[in-house]
Amino acid sequence: MGTITINSNDRVFATLSQFGSIIYNVELSGVTSMSDVVRRLRGEVKSSSGLLSLTLRNSSQGWCRSASIML
After folding, report:
1. DSSP 3-state assignment of 34?
2. Which residues does 69 contact at the CB level (< 8 Å), separation at least 6?
3. Are 54 and 12 in contact (CB under 8 A)?
4. Among 52, 59, 62, 64, which has the minimal tally of Cβ within 10 Å of its Cβ?
5. Rounded (10°) CA dihedral 39, 40, 42, 48
6. Are 16 and 24 spatial neighbours (Cβ–Cβ below 8 Å)?
7. Is pLDDT above 70 for 37?
8. C-beta of residue 44 within 8 angstroms of C-beta of residue 54
9. CA–CA separation, 17 and 61 (whole Å)
C-alpha cells in the first residue's frame, strides 16, 4: 500500500471483498497504522480466510488505497 498516514482521530473505512463480493464493511477509529487495521479485521472476520481485497478510505485526509491481504 505504500506509505500511508493514519491519525488516531481519523475516520477510516475498510471494505473487504472476496471473489468480487463484499464480505465486511466497517468504520474504524483509533487505528494508526496498516498493521492496526489488519489486526482489527482479523479479529472481526472469522468466517472468511485466504486472499482478500482490502479497500481502505481515510475520509479525514481524503485518500483511498487498495491492497490484497491474507487472512
Report:
1. helix
2. 38, 41, 51, 52, 54
3. no
4. 62
5. -150
6. yes
7. yes
8. no
9. 23
- 31/2: higher pLDDT: 31
Q: How far apart are CA 36 and CA 66, in angstroms?
A: 16
C-alpha cell, 70: 491474507
- Strands of 12-18's sheet, edge to edge? 21-28, 12-18, 51-58, 63-70
With beta carbons less than 8 A apart as the criterion, state whether 24 and 15 touch: yes
Whether pLDDT at 1 is above 60: no
Cell numbers placing 71: 487472512
* Mean of pLDDT values over 3-12: 91
